Each structure stands twice: as C-alpha cells, then as structure tokens.
C-alpha cells in the first residue's frame, strides 16, 4: 500500500513537473525573445504573491486527431483562482508555447469550468489570451468549444466583471469572446486581433496589410474602439488590471470596496472658479476639474485614445468608486459624435450593472453636425447614450460646467431623464442652442432689415445670452437643484453621494429593454 502511494506521489510530481515545463525551454525562449512573458509568469505578476491555486493542471485533450494530446501540458491553458489585493478572482492564461495556445475541447472545458465557478462564487474572471485560435486538428469540436465560452460570456455579463488581456494573437471568431467582456487590454506590438488576418485580406480584397496595421493595439485603442486599455508590455498591462480590479465590486450584488485615500471631503479648490474662460468659444481642459475633485487626484481613464471628446473613467469620491463621464471641450469642442456616444453608453451601462454611481460633468455644444455623422448613424448611436443614462438606476449626479445645448443637454444625464441631482456652475449656459445660431433663426428678418446687420446680430446675441444662457432660468424651474460655486464641487458631490447611497432603484418587470444597438 505504502509502495503504491509512494509511486503515485512520484507520478504526481512528474505530471506536475511536466505541466510546469509548458512547451519546453526552446519555445519559452522564443516567447521571451518576442518580448512576451509565459502564461505562468503572467499569472505570477497578476495575482498576489503565492495566492494562485491551479485547477485542472492534469487535464489533457481528448487525444484524437493529429499528434498525441497527452504531450500537450494543460492542453495549452492554465486555469485557477487567486487574489488581487486580497480579493478572489478567477483566471485563465493561454500558453502559446503549447500547441500555440490553440483552443480545443479540453482547453475550452478548463476555461468554462473557471468561468462557471467565478459566476457561482461571484468573483471577476480575467482571461489572458495568447492563442493561434481554434485547434485545427480538432475541427468542428474546436468551434463547438468556442461556442461554450461565448455562451458563458453572455450569461456572466452584468453578473461578474469580465476582463480580457490580449497578449499575443487572437484571430478569427476567437475575438468574439474578449469583445463581449467588459474591458479589453492589449499589449502594444505583441498583440493582434482580427476576424480575418492579412493573408485572407490579400486573397479576398488584394490588399497588402501587416498584422499591426490590421489589428494591432494602437488600431483597436484609437480606431475600432475594441480595446479600452493599451500598455507597452506585459508587466505594465497586468499591473493595470490589478489597478482596475481595485475599483470594482466582485459581482453585481455587491458595492465596490471603499478605499480611504486620506483626502478631506470638504477640500475646496479656488482655481476652479477660474477654469471656464470668459470667452465661450475658448476651450479648456476638463481634466483640470476631474483631477481636482477626485480623491487623491487618482483617475483610471477608460479608452483614453478613442473619442477624446468624451472622457470616461473610474475614480473615487469620499472613498467610494464612481464612474465619471465628462465632455472634453478641448477636443471637437466636446460635441457628441458617433464614437463618443458609443464609448460613453457602454461605460454607463457597465457602471449601472455593477452598482457604481455615475457623475457627469457637462460642457456640450450639441451633436456633431454633417453627413459623415448622420450617415454613420448619429441617430442610432446618440440614442444609445440617451438610453443608457435613462435606464441607469445607480445614483446619478450631473454638474453642468458650461454649455448644455439642445438634445445633447437632455442626453447628458439631465433632470428630464431622471438624473437624481443636477448642479450647475454659475458659468453654465443651458439653452436650445448657442447665441449665434439662435439669434440667426429667431431674429433673421429683423437682422436682414437692419442698416448694420452684424451690429444687430451682436445686439440680439447679447440679449439672448442674458435672457437664456445662464443656469438661473433652469434653476427657477427646478431642473437644476442648485447653482454651486465651482470651488465647492468636490464637497457637494461627496455629500450628495452620501445621501444617495441608500437609493432604492425601481426596476420595471420585463425581460429586458431593446437598446438601439
Ligand atoms: C493547432 C496551432 C494553431 C492552431 C498555431 N499552432 N496555431 N496548432 N491549431 N490554430 C501551433 C503551430 O503548429 C506551432 O506548433 C505552434 O503552434 C506555434 O505556431 P507558429 O506558427 O510556429 O508560431 P508563429 O510563427 O508565432 O505564428 C503564430 C500564428 C500562426 C500567427 C498564430 O501559428 C497561425 O497563423 N496559426 C493559425 C491561425 C489560425 O488560422 N487559426 C484559426 C483561426 S479561425 P509547433 O509544434 O511547430 O511549435 C478560429 C475560429 C474560431 O480561430 C471560431 C470561433 C467560433
């Protein structure tokens, strides 16, 4: 008996050693030469020291098709759970050194097991992707295996945070799993995502294009909007995932952890009284306000390289995580366009799903005009943002800093779509449109008849500004709950969040709404 035990223990050692060796030193060296870490090295950096507990280290593929599957340690993926700053997360890390990290039945079953456990336990799932895609030798079984993952992605959506790091190739239909998760991180130069690669592009549309040009990190961060974060290497990427997790609750039944950054809630900032320039056509940087009000001036901006006319990100106020959505007057005057609407809508929906209160800072001259935007679907995309804010039941607060014109005023979390508390700075201009456009429409005849039309236009614009373009008209109507001194913004927001904390959202009894996708 003792002898049998002993040999089994020896065998276990051997099997584990084999798993730890991955695809062998030669392939590991190639991985390193390409500036990539191995699947295990990545997990080591992602998780708290010594916290990783592996599941299915001994699992192999089904052993059919070309080659011997028993010789593929872990079937090309390492799965398990560990901690990030003491909080449990589930992980999978594809091992490119083993059959190119390709995904077959066994590989998928391992991923599905940790996805199921993550959802049952109520902890985030983090996937580190580095894979040649469907394992060719497994044929349709490999495709079925992807389907199982997609199914779980959808059912975990809005239940647990799902995070994907693309740290190597991610091609073909495989891209649809990460793209359905909440946040996609990419590593510059070493990660690529595309539905069809450069060879297919060449064959079908006779165009030469590199992997980097087609689906590199920079492309997805700035053009397609697929990636929310890009980092120059694996180490910085994994560190950023840890940072993101710190802002998030573990699941949709919990609130995000409170973290006291030792920043007094009542802190005021006199410089904010001078932020908005006297000339309404002059821009300024909304980041000044953002970094001034947030605890410890810490802000994790989401999609910083995409649709810069709107800023989305996570920060803390009074220790509590908030989702911040702000127009950026320094880019396209802060106008809402297709990309900005899509970016902010998705972010708002994430925050609402995970009990993260929304703070909206408004300086918006309207929707971006022109055929490019109209034909690109500004009606559809703008509606997404309107829908997202309107359906959100988390505490919602808005501060109108300067312009809030027309439909964009209503869309940007206004009182009229049931935002909880709406503040305005004294510099706010709440109106149907800007002074010039409005005067040209309503006083056109008078201006045309005047001896000096330009002087008449200016006179009418002045009168329009005085009558309409201030926050006091809206405050008198109760659409603005208070006009606040800019310097006190942080304190007012924190006090408002405190009293909204016990807000009980009413949800309509329905399967789900039909957001214009
Ligand atoms: C089986 C694969 C594989 C795959 C790579 N390998 N991809 N094995 N199935 N899909 C193996 C290689 O045979 C090789 O094995 C090892 O992994 C490393 O691959 P290399 O080609 O040497 O690496 P590299 O030069 O870096 O090229 C990486 C690559 C290339 C660009 C990913 O391997 C490649 O083009 N692979 C095929 C990609 C692909 O077409 N996948 C299917 C996409 S469609 P050895 O033993 O030599 O080390 C898809 C559908 C999903 O995924 C559908 C979901 C619904």
From TrEMBL:
GO cellular component: acetyl-CoA carboxylase complex
GO biological process, one term: carbon fixation
Transmembrane segments: none
UniProt cross-references to Pfam families, sorted A to Z: Carboxyl_trans (PF01039)
InterPro entries on file: AccD/PCCB (IPR051047), AcCoA_carboxyl_beta (IPR034733), ClpP/crotonase-like_dom_sf (IPR029045), COA_CT_C (IPR011763), COA_CT_N (IPR011762)
Gene Ontology terms, MF aspect: acetyl-CoA carboxylase activity; propionyl-CoA carboxylase activity
Protein name: Propionyl-CoA carboxylase beta chain
Origin species: Desulfopila aestuarii DSM 18488
């Amino acid at each position: 008996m003792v002898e049998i035990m002993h040999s089994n223990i020896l065998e276990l050692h051997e099997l584990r050693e084999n798993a730890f060796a991955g695809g062998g030193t030669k392939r590991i060296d190639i991985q390193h030469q390409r500036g990539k870490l191995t699947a295990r090295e990545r997990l080591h950096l992602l998780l708290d020291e010594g916290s990783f507990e592996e599941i299915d280290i001994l699992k192999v593929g089904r052993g059919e098709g070309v080659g011997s599957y028993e010789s593929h340690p872990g079937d090309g993926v390492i799965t398990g759970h560990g901690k990030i700053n003491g909080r449990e997360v589930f992980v999978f890390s594809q091992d490119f050194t083993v059959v190119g990290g390709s995904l077959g039945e066994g590989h998928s079953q391992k991923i599905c097991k940790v996805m199921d456990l993550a959802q049952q336990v109520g902890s985030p799932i983090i996937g580190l992707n580095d894979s040649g895609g469907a394992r060719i030798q497994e044929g349709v079984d490999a495709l079925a295996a992807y389907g199982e993952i997609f199914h779980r992605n959808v059912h975990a959506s809005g239940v647990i945070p799902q995070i994907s790091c693309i740290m190597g190739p991610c091609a073909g239909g495989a891209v649809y799993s990460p793209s359905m998760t909440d946040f996609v991180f990419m590593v510059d130069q070493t990660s690529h995502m595309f539905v069809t690669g450069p060879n297919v592009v060449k064959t079908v549309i006779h165009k030469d294009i590199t992997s980097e040009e087609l689906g590199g990190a920079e492309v997805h961060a700035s053009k397609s909007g697929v990636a929310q974060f890009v980092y120059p290497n694996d180490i910085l990427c994994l560190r950023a995932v840890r940072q993101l997790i710190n802002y998030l609750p573990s699941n949709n039944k919990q609130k995000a952890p409170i973290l006291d950054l030792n920043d007094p809630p009542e802190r005021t900032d006199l410089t904010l009284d001078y932020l908005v320039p006297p000339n309404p056509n002059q821009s300024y940087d909304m980041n000044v306000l953002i970094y001034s009000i947030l605890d410890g001036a810490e802000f994790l901006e989401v999609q910083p390289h995409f649709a810069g006319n709107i800023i989305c990100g996570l920060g803390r106020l009074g220790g509590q995580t908030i989702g911040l959505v702000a127009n950026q007057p320094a880019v396209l005057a802060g106008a809402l366009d297709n990309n900005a609407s899509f970016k902010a809508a998705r972010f708002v929906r994430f925050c609402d799903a995970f009990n993260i209160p929304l703070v909206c800072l408004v300086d918006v001259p309207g929707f971006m005009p022109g055929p490019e935007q109209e034909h690109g679907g500004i009606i559809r995309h703008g509606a997404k943002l309107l829908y997202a804010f309107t359906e959100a039941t988390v505490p919602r607060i808005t501060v109108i800093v300067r312009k809030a014109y027309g439909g964009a005023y209503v869309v940007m979390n206004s009182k009229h779509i049931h935002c909880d508390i709406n503040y305005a700075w004294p510099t706010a201009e709440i109106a149907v449109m800007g002074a010039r456009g409005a005067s040209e429409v309503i006083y056109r005849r008078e201006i045309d008849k005047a001896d000096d039309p330009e002087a008449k236009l200016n006179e009418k614009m002045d009168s329009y500004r005085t009558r309409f373009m201030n926050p006091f008209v809206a405050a008198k109507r109760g659409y603005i709950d208070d006009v606040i001194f800019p310097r006190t913004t942080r304190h007012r927001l924190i006090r408002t969040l405190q009293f909204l904390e016990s807000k009980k959202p009413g949800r309509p009894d329905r399967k789900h709404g039909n957001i214009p996708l």
